Amino acid sequence: MGASAPTAAPLSEGLRPRRASALRTPHAKSMGRRPRRSVLLTVLTGLMLVYALVPLVWLAINATKTQQGLLHSFGLWFDADFALWSNIGDTLTYDDGVFVRWLLNTLLYVVAGAGGATFLAVLGGYALAKFDFPGKRAIFAVVIGAVAVPGTALAVPTFLMFSQMGLTNTPWAVIIPSLISPFGLYLMWVFAADAIPVELLEAARIDGASELRTFFTVSLPLLAPGIVTVLLFTMVATWNNYFLPLIMIKDPDWYPLTLGLSSWNDQASTAGGEPVFNLVITGSLLTIVPLIAAFLLLQRHWQSGLAAGSVKE
Q1: Which domains does the chain possess?
Q2: 22 pLDDT above the threshold of 60
Q3: Rounded to two decimals, what is the model's pTM?
Q4: Do residues 170 and 282 touch, judged by C-beta distance below 8 A?
């Protein structure tokens, strides 16, 4: 008994270094280190940033030049004559202020087309995500197939159909096709499936809320990030739409900005036409300002985890 006590301390002391060394695994060492930076990834990201910003910088710089300054100065630097404010005034008043008319037309197409497409996508995506009914898989296949079909492939059949209905050369020829957004429907379908817990819907129904009230009071606030995303996608697509108005609209009074600026740009190639490249560039700069403002104003709605903690598991 007397000899066993002295041997216990050396054994315990001999185990301590081994326990400490066992904790020093390569994984534990790597956890304390900062993540290794990839030079290749940094270079690629920088190149993509330059690729995205250079056209905007070129547009902003050349919008400050006169028609002569565009032809006699370096494209990525300012001219001696700073003419931004005069260019903006000339753009808004040229040809009896038709640019303002084109801007109002574009706003009409965006509000009616993109807004309607977002509303329909939210309703359809919510129904497909939270209700079971016969033919749901067939609808899923149709939506996926519609996403894969480019819009230009449907432009000519749409034109033939609208011409038979007498809707060409009217705003409806641009608004009605813009109401259909297969990608927006699919995006809201996927988002609603995860963003809205089934338990919340069941609790609302147990409390006596109707399906319409449940949708507007419970589901709609949780769908806000997805709604904003779909709204921005459809808004940008409608704002930049060129090919559909090109084949549908012949009256310049119903042109959107894309088609109107293109007609100004084509003036230089017509007999006796006046080249107004400075107004085209300034008009293009004014065209992207509302899109930038929309992104800045709506980005605060991109919130995640709104339903976190709402359901006890």
Answers
A1: 38-82 (no CATH), 99-301 (1.10.3720.10)
A2: no
A3: 0.80
A4: no
